[in-house]
Design a protein that fits this description.
This protein has about 425 residues and is an alpha/beta fold. The protein is built from 16 helices and 13 strands. Flavin mononucleotide binds next to strand 10.
Length: about 425
C-alpha cells in the first residue's frame, strides 16, 4: 500500500462527464467549454492547484449505436455525442501546467501501433514526460463500423493487443538516451548504429521501421488498462503501470483486489498491482443537501438517455428487452454481463431493469460518495485503507464546479491527515503516480 493516495480526474471529451444530461444543468460548463481552450486550461490548473496526479480521459471514438440500432437518442440528449478526440487536449493542457499528468484512452482497435506511438510519444516528449495512455482493446461496435472493420471476438482482441504492445515496446526501446549528440561542428545529429531498427512480422501486425520519436524524461507514456474479464486482467497485469476499475462498494473492491493480486502473482507481477477505483464525489454543506441535488439531477434524466448509454456500454439493444422484469429474470444471452454488473451495483436488490437503468443514469456503474467534505474524505480514506488500492479516479457530476469543490474543500482535509501530497514529488507523471 502506498503511503499517500493518488488522485486522477476522470473525464470525457464530450458534453458530459459520467452523469447523463449533466450538460443541461445550469451550473455545468463542460458543453460550453468543449470548444474553449481556456476551459480546458483552467480545469487543468485547478487540478494542479489540488496536486492531482493527473487527469484521465475515457474515450470511445465513434458514438454508441446499439439502442434501437441507431444513434438518434444519443444525439438528441448529448449522450457522449459529440465525441471529440481527447488526444488533442493533451498539448493544450500541458502548456498551461508544469506537473499535472494528462492521460487519455487510445483504442488499439483501429490505429496502427506505429502511428499511435508516434502521436502519444510526441506529446509525451513535448510535455517533458507527463502523458499516460489507456490501452483499451476497443469493444464498441460503432468503432469497428466506422473504420470498416469486422468486430474482433473478445479474447482475440486481447491476443491482438498483446502483439500490438510488442510493436510499441520495440519502438520505445529503439532510441537509447545517448543516441542524439547534435554535434554542430561535426555536423552529426545522431549515431545510426545506436538506433535499433524494427523488423516485426506478427500474426496481426507488420512493422519495418526506424523508431522516430525521442523518449521523454519518463521514457515512454505511463500505461493504464481497465480489462475486467479474466483475459482482460491478464493483459492488464502484463502491461499496465496502473489498472482502472469500477466496483460498486467496499466488499466488491476488496474482492476485485484479491482476484487481481492472484492474477498478477501467477503472471509474476505481484509487487506492482496498482489499482485506482472510480468514484463520483458530490460535495455539499450536508448529506441531505447532496442527496437533494443528486435526486433533482436524477429526475431530469430521460429514461431513453440512460437506456442508450447502458445499451452502448454492454453492447445490447435494451429496446428489445422487457425492462419491467426483475433484473435477475432477464435471461437473454447478450445481456448476462449487464445483469451481473447491475445486480452487483444494486447489491442484488430485487428491482426491475428499468429502475436499475434509471439509477445508472447518474454515474453509470460508478459508486457515488455524498455529503460534507469531511464525510467524503472519511469515505475515501476508508476505501483506500481497506482495499489497499493506489487511489481514485474522481468523476464529479458537474465540471468544473465539482472539481473546484473537491480541490478547495476535500483535498486540504486529506493533506491535513497526511494521506495526500502537499507538493509534487516529480515533474513526470510516472514520478508522481508510480514513484
Ligand atoms: C474505469 C474504466 C475506464 C474505462 N475506459 C474505457 C474507455 O475509455 N474506452 C473503452 O473503450 N473502454 C473503456 N473501459 C472498458 C474496458 O477497456 C474493458 O473493455 C471493459 O472493462 C471490459 O473488460 P473485458 O473486455 O476484459 O471484459 C473502461 C473500463 C473501466 C473499468
Amino acid at each position: 500500500m502506498p503511503d499517500k493516495m493518488h488522485l486522477l480526474a476522470f473525464l470525457m471529451h464530450t458534453p458530459i462527464n459520467h452523469m447523463t444530461m449533466s450538460w443541461a444543468d445550469p451550473a455545468d460548463r463542460q458543453a460550453d467549454g468543449l470548444g474553449s481552450i481556456a476551459h480546458w486550461q483552467n480545469l487543468a490548473q485547478t487540478l494542479e492547484r489540488g496536486c492531482f496526479d493527473g487527469m484521465f480521459f475515457a474515450d470511445v471514438p465513434a458514438v454508441y449505436d446499439h439502442y434501437q440500432d441507431n444513434t438518434d437518442v444519443a444525439i438528441r440528449h448529448g449522450v457522449n455525442w459529440p465525441t471529440h478526440d481527447p488526444v488533442a487536449l493533451i498539448g493544450i493542457m500541458a502548456a498551461a501546467t508544469r506537473h499535472l499528468g494528462i492521460a487519455t484512452t487510445v483504442s488499439l482497435a483501429s490505429l496502427h501501433p506505429f502511428l499511435a506511438v508516434r502521436s502519444m510519444s510526441t506529446l509525451d516528449y513535448l510535455s517533458q514526460g507527463r502523458v499516460g495512455w489507456n490501452i483499451v482493446t476497443g469493444n464498441a461496435r460503432s468503432e469497428y463500423r466506422a473504420m470498416g472493420l469486422d468486430v474482433v471476438e473478445h479474447d482475440k482482441r486481447y491476443d491482438r493487443a498483446d502483439e500490438y504492445m510488442q510493436v510499441c515496446y520495440a519502438l520505445w526501446h529503439g532510441i537509447p538516451e545517448d543516441a542524439v549528440v547534435a554535434d554542430r561542428e561535426k555536423g552529426i545529429y545522431a549515431d545510426p548504429a545506436k538506433i535499433e531498427k524494427i523488423a516485426f512480422e506478427g500474426e496481426y501486425f507488420r512493422c519495418h521501421a526506424t523508431p522516430s520519436v525521442l523518449p521523454s524524461p519518463q521514457g515512454r507514456p505511463v500505461l493504464f488498462q481497465a480489462g475486467s474479464s479474466g483475459r482482460g486482467q491478464r493483459f492488464a497485469v502484463e502491461h499496465a503501470d496502473v489498472i482502472f476499475a469500477i466496483q460498486p462498494d467496499l466488499p466488491r473492491m476488496q474482492t476485485f483486489m484479491q482476484n487481481l493480486r492472484k492474477t498478477a502473482a501467477s503472471a509474476g507481477r505481484a509487487s506492482d498491482t496498482r489499482v485506482t477505483f472510480a468514484v463520483q464525489p458530490f460535495v455539499a454543506d450536508s448529506l441531505e443537501a447532496a442527496q437533494e441535488k443528486r435526486d433533482a439531477m436524477l429526475a431530469k434524466i430521460p429514461l431513453e438517455a440512460a437506456l442508450t448509454r447502458i445499451s452502448g456500454t454492454f453492447g445490447v439493444d435494451l429496446d428489445t428487452v422487457d425492462i419491467d422484469k426483475p433484473l435477475q429474470e432477464i435471461t437473454t444471452q447478450a445481456s448476462q454481463g449487464l445483469v451481473a454488473a447491475m445486480s452487483s451495483m444494486f447489491n442484488d436488490r430485487n428491482i426491475t431493469l428499468r429502475e436499475a437503468v434509471r439509477l445508472s443514469g447518474l454515474a453509470g456503474l460508478i459508486p457515488q460518495i455524498l455529503g460534507t467534505p469531511e464525510r467524503i474524505a472519511d469515505q475515501l480514506e476508508t476505501l483506500w485503507r481497506e482495499t489497499g488500492c493506489h487511489g481514485f479516479n474522481l468523476t464529479p457530476a458537474l465540471v468544473p464546479g465539482g472539481y473546484e469543490d473537491f480541490v478547495d474543500h476535500v483535498v486540504p482535509i486529506l493533506q491535513q491527515r497526511g494521506i495526500f501530497r502537499t507538493e509534487y514529488e516529480s515533474t513526470t507523471l510516472r514520478g508522481n503516480l508510480v514513484g
